[in-house]
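task queued by scheduler; priority normal; single chain, no ligands, no partner chains; default sampling; output format set to structure tokens
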Amino acid sequence: MDNGQSKERLATINTTIGELIEAVTEIALEAGKTEQEGYKLASLTLESILRRRRVQELPVLN
């Protein structure tokens, strides 16, 4: 039975943090209208990725 919650499947990619930063930054710089905007996009994207990972790793305290 569907309780209204979506179940998202995430793929796992084995990479280094440096490779992740480089790839995200390269894509963001291409997408941004200016270099400054590209770096801001990269920053926001990396923060989102790392924050989501951190939330998944936090233990549940009862």
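post-processing summary
- Residues 27 and 42 are 8 Å apart (CA to CA).
- Helices lie at 17-31, 35-57.
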